[in-house]
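Here is one chain, start to finish.
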Amino acid sequence: KMGIVYNELSPEAQHVITTVWKKEAWQMTSQGISNSIWGFQLMKVISSKDLPGIVRAAMWDGIRREGPRFDEQEIGNIIFSLSKMQHVFKSMPFDVRATLLQSLTTRLPEMEPQGVVMVLVGLSRLKVDWQSMSDVLKDRFIEATYRVLMKIENAETLSSLIYALSSIGLKWWTLEALYPHIQAAISDSIHDF
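Its structure:
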């Protein structure tokens, strides 16, 4: 939030950050893991370019270890942050992907509307598509999307939601065929704004 860009830091400062991360990541709580990954994203870290492999490995280990304890904000922040750090979901270790999806499936019903939109945008940037999701996760997203549409407060959130749904492969005709109540709720919201 202070406008610090990682790759503009001195090599010494970068070394301190990565050394501390390597040293402390093993004992971080779910909040520590989430906040650290969020911080990397805020510093515009491109994971594959800016972070040594050992730091990425520590990040994956933290997600594996703390994933079952992530709350809805933490899992949302992590998914969004990983997308901003230019990760591709299929390139992440399989067990990390499974942990993220399980945590998301568990926490999605508790997410605030902004979190649902942020996760959908993050998943689209991670190149996750609708067809690759489990039926349970799809159901949770449909429930969460409907909940968001019933509470939507502004046109920007609606626009972001429509964009995110389209980006993960839920096109208008798919909504019409499989989820007509979502399509109707989107139409009603468009007319409201």
